Protein: Putative nicotinate-nucleotide adenylyltransferase
Organism: bioreactor metagenome
Amino acid sequence: MVNLAIASNDYFFSSLIEIDRKGNTYTIDTLKQLKTVYLDSEIYFIVGYDTIETIHTWKDYELLPEYTRFVVVSRTTQSAGNLINLTEDFLDKVDFFETPVIDISSTEIRQNIYNNKSITYMVDNQVERYIYKHNLYRAR
């Protein structure tokens, strides 16, 4: 479904690196591997504000900016003051963007499907077709 959702955007791609890796998988390992494949490309890691607030708990988090630039998307104006655990060097590789609030959740999408309600405009058209074709998220 990810591939369907990003098919029309040449700037996105999906990867099976974490699925194919044996054992525990950590973001730092994935980014290192991606960087060896895409040497001359800048990798952007899109996360929500809630993720960047807790990223200091991730394995080797202080090394992450060596391999990626973070794009932090928040739904409201939030202060970078909550990021006291991150160094200035780390924050230099973080870009903040505020987006309009779109009141959609994956739980709501699954509930709508289960209850035979529309998910039009909640997911990409191709993803919607795939979900219905494969009878996903319906009662068994």
Observations:
- The chain is about 35% helix and 10% strand.
- Residues 2-101 form a domain with the Rossmann fold fold (CATH 3.40.50.620).
